[in-house]
Each structure stands twice: as structure tokens, then as C-alpha cells.
């Protein structure tokens, strides 16, 4: 029998744009998935490793790169993406059964840089509505091994233009990040193996460096578009229903290269968002 979606999870998701379903998966399932995907990356990634695996590279992100879209050939990743427990939660949180478009596995070996603050729908471009994520911890995760950080309430923002910050890439993947507005703050999300973090595709989030010498931070991630979406960026095709069948029509590839994004401007002593610029074109996974 499926676990009930807790009222507290729904309330938190609606208010803050994210919520953790504690123990959605058992510690044994998390350990099995961890073992399975670690073995996959250590034998070369089975074709899913971003940029390929280079076991001798000084950068831990090149020794243990993320796996992108493994569900397109791997049954374990496909099973995670369409797991009924995820489906049940996303349906309750988003008000309708979503469609599945992406899987990723992050290893974040000791010393790995973190991921810059961003909003997923900058890249997925799901509309109308937005995208959603189901991010499962395959081991205990805290600030030391690079937990997720999220900006509560930022799910209500427009898609914001990213800004360049010199030197950010010493600790993060790139020098580009989504800026925070007045009063906004990124908070860490601590998780236990088997917990699943659900978040809205407009929520600003990222992750810190793994500062440990001996702990990985392995996570299994699914990305979805909300039921009402009729468009998503080309990279995310094919689109699947949660029963595992493929959507053959009804979803268009986003025809726009880039798109409008928001910037903070001062107006009459207040900070407001003005839509301008062009958000990055979706060519890779986020
Ligand atoms: O796991 C991370 O460090 C970042 C993941 C992420 O940004 C996402 O799943 O959208």
C-alpha cells in the first residue's frame, strides 16, 4: 500500500516551494540504488556520464561526473522516475499527475564543487505551469558533504536573469548564478538516506561544496512537468506518463531560443522585478 501524502508536506510545499517526504524510500532501497549507480559510474557510466568518466582527473567532478538521463536505457532509473510513491506525492503537490522528463544521478565525491543557485524552469521551460523535482538522498546529507540549499518562497518569482560573479567557480560549477532579492536567503536542507525533497521548478536552489575527505553525496533525481504543461524544451524529450508509457503528442518542443527573464530594479524606493533579457537556451540538464 502507498504511504499517504502527509498534510504537513503539502502545506510546506505550498508555502515554501519545497518539502521533504521523510523516509519515502527505505534505507535498504537507498543503499541498493547507491551501490548500483556507484558501480555504473566506476565502470565508465554505461554511456550516461556527462563528458565521460576520467578516473585519473584531478577534478572529482570528472572522476565522478553526474549521470544524465539514464532512464532512457536503464530500467532501475526508469523505475525510480515513475515510482508510484513519487507519482502520488507529485500529484498531491501539483494538483494533477505530472509527466516525467529527466533523471540524473549526482555522486559529488569528496572535494567536489557545488551547483550554482538556479531555477530549473530556466532550462526545462515547461509551460503553462512549471516543472517539479523529486530529489532523493541515497545517504545522509548535510552542509559538510554539500547538501541542497533552497530559497523559501522563491517559487513565486519570475524566472530571473542569471548574473556573473567572478571567482564563484572556485566553489561552484560556473561563475553564473540566480541573484537573490531583498530579504531572500538560501537555507540548507539536511536529509537522511531515503528522504525525498520535492521542489517547484521556479524555486531558487543550488548546493554547496563537498568539504569532506571521505564522504560522497549520492543523489537520485527525477524531473517532471506539471499536468497542464503543453511545452517543454527539446532536450527533455521524450516525455513519459507516470505509468511508463510515452507521450506521443500533445506536448510541443519549446520553439523559443532563450526567453524573457527578470531583473531587480529600484522604483520609487522599492525593489521590483522588471522582465527583460534572455534566459539561457536549454541545451543541457539542470
Ligand atoms: O544536486 C545538486 O547539487 C543540484 C541538483 C539540482 O539542481 C536539481 O536537481 O535541480
Could you describe the largest sheet, including whether it forms a barrel? 6 strands, antiparallel
Count of distinct strands? 15
**N- and C-termini, Cα separation:** 32 Å
Provide the CATH architecture. Sandwich
CATH class assignment: Mainly Beta
User: Low-confidence parts lasting 5 or more residues at pLDDT below 50?
Assistant: none
How many domain regions? Answer: 1
* Element string (H = helix, E = strand): HEHHEHHEHEEEEEEEEEEEE
CATH topology: Jelly Rolls
Helix content: 10-25%
Question: Which structural category do the helix and sheet elements fall into?
Answer: alpha+beta
Total helices: the number is 6
Classify the beta-strand content into a percent band: 15-25%
Give an account of the 3D structure.
The chain has 286 residues and is α+β, with helices and mostly antiparallel strands. It has one domain (7-154, 186-255): Jelly Rolls. Helix content is 18%, strand content 24%. The protein is globular. The chain starts with 6 loop residues before the first helix and ends in a 7-residue tail after the last strand. The model has no long low-confidence stretch (mean pLDDT 93). 2-oxoglutaric acid is lined by residues 106, 115, 120, 133, 135, 148, 205, 207, 219, 221, 286.
